[in-house]
Specification:
10 helices, 2 domains, two-stranded antiparallel sheet, single chain, 2 strands
């Protein structure tokens, strides 16, 4: 059995993930992602990407549609849309808690400018498209903040921006607790990816245990162990939060 497993592993195409991560580790000191994440540089602009984007990039390289130096136009556009959504959510969250006041000395670093998408549209249409990438883009990158993706026949309802901000913070705290229990870097990366997918699709912590396997698969949370981890941890997290609130009172 071990010999068969070794043979199968030998026949698999080698992954390009290490080369992608090594090439595109963010080195821009002005970028919030500096030395802790990865950014593809598109026309001098930082386009942050995650494990899902890197896996799509890896598949494109294996099909000889991309290189470590440059992903396909479709992948770049997908990454840029995701960056735009995260920037919009963060801006809405800041507006909901910070009083409006004039500021003349604030410098914001924006990974992506949404107007660039139109320039990428034609390039993406002319290129041979990977069906998996097309599905991932339609499922995982909604065009408006808080809208949620239509990943099933009965999508879970989204909430107004202010309430959504509180839900996102709770989900962030939940995944922070999950990652503190993990020692492996690969598991933490997969948990980070799962968190981002849930946030992008407007999922609240109270809805996680109701998600079916096929719904998680459509959000590209496909690892069975990660699916089990994020479902099973909800009850314990809520109990700890309730206990903490009781102690404070």
């Amino acid at each position: 059995m071990q010999e068969e497993a070794d043979e199968r592993n030998a026949q698999r195409s080698p992954s390009n993930l290490d080369a992608i991560y090594s090439k595109w580790k963010c080195e821009g000191k002005e970028c919030k992602n500096y030395e802790k994440g990865y950014c593809y540089i598109h026309e001098t602009k930082h386009v942050e990407f995650d494990l899902v984007d890197a896996n799509a990039w890896d598949r494109a390289i294996k099909k000889e549609e991309a290189t470590v130096d440059a992903p396909t136009s479709a992948i770049i556009m997908s990454m840029m849309k995701k960056n735009h959504r995260l920037t919009a959510i963060q801006s809405a969250s800041r507006r909901s808690v910070v009083p409006a006041s004039p500021s003349f000395n604030t410098t914001n670093h924006t990974h992506f400018y949404f107007g660039d998408i139109k320039k990428m549209q034609q390039q993406a249409q002319d290129q041979a498209k990977d069906p998996e990438l097309t599905q991932a883009s339609s499922l995982s990158h909604p065009t408006t903040p808080g809208s949620g993706a239509n990943y099933g026949r009965n999508p879970l309802p989204s909430s107004p921006i202010v309430a959504e901000s509180d839900a996102e913070e709770e989900l962030e705290r939940y995944f922070d607790c999950l990652m503190k229990k993990e020692k492996g870097g690969s598991v933490k990366r997969m948990l980070t990816n799962a968190k981002e997918k849930l946030l992008e699709n407007g999922i609240k912590i109270s809805q996680i245990r109701k998600l079916r396997d096929d719904q998680m698969d459509k959000m590209e949370i496909t690892e069975i162990g990660i699916q089990m981890t994020i479902r099973e941890g909800v009850r314990e997290f809520k109990a700890e939060m309730k206990k903490s609130q009781t102690v404070e009172l």
